[in-house]
């Protein structure tokens, strides 16, 4: 079973941590997640410690290294995507399942530079989780196409690149994107993925 980031980081600790130590670790994880969202995988330990309201000494007492913390947090986020895919796979409506997965997947990409970084160039220790997401997308696309609710002329590779392109830049042509622009863009894209109506009907 996949663990939350805090449990993953504590799994190698021989003793049960004090409540305050666990709270500090949870603060570091929350800070790392927001820092990853804003900055990406180039975020520093000092920036995470500052956001968590702790010193760098506390940072390194709670986690072995910056890489260990970032990978635990990224693994937790990627697991949220695979969980969304599992829910979508069991939805009796293939189109609803596909669109709910697409919304969860694009939403995490739109909100986090770190997720975009790792999905573009997976780290070796996260590659298996990224492969699970890839396999889930393949299944969801095949299921929707088999049901006739997704265009048959597209490959699942096409869908992967289409969904990756949905997250909205902050501005274009001198226009500033609204906070929900990515959801509007996704709705437009999803409409374009539906099969054209049969003119004979």
Automatic annotation (TrEMBL):
Lineage start: Bacteria, Bacillati, Actinomycetota, Actinomycetes, Mycobacteriales
Keywords on record: DNA-binding, Transcription, Transcription regulation
Pfam families, per database record: TetR_C_43, TetR_N
SUPFAM superfamilies reported in the protein's UniProt record: Homeodomain-like, Tetracyclin repressor-like, C-terminal domain
InterPro entries: Homeodomain-like_sf, HTH-type_TetR-like_transc_reg, HTH_TetR, Tet_transcr_reg_TetR-rel_C_sf, TetR_SbtR-like_C
Gene Ontology MF annotations: DNA-binding transcription factor activity; transcription cis-regulatory region binding
PROSITE patterns: HTH_TETR_2
DNA-binding annotation, residue ranges on this chain: 44-63
HTH tetR-type domain segment(s): 22-81
Protein name: TetR/AcrR family transcriptional regulator
């Amino acid at each position: 079973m996949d663990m939350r980031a805090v449990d993953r980081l504590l799994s190698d600790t021989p003793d049960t941590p004090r409540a305050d130590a666990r709270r500090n670790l949870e603060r570091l994880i929350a800070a790392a997640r927001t820092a990853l969202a804003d900055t990406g995988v180039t975020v520093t330990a000092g920036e995470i410690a500052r956001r968590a309201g702790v010193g760098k000494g506390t940072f390194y007492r709670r986690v072995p290294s910056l890489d260990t913390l970032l990978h635990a947090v990224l693994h937790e986020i990627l697991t949220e995507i695979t969980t969304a895919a599992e829910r979508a796979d069991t939805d009796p409506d293939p189109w609803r399942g596909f669109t709910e997965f697409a919304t969860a997947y694009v939403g995490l990409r739109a909100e986090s530079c770190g997720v975009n970084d790792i999905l573009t160039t997976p780290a070796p220790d996260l590659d298996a989780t990224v492969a699970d997401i890839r396999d889930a997308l393949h299944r969801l696309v095949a299921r929707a196409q088999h049901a006739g609710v997704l265009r048959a002329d597209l490959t699942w590779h096409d869908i992967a690149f289409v969904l990756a392109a949905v997250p909205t830049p902050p501005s274009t042509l001198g226009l500033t994107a609204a906070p929900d622009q990515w959801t509007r863009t996704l709705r437009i894209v999803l409409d374009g993925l539906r099969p054209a109506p049969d003119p004979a009907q």
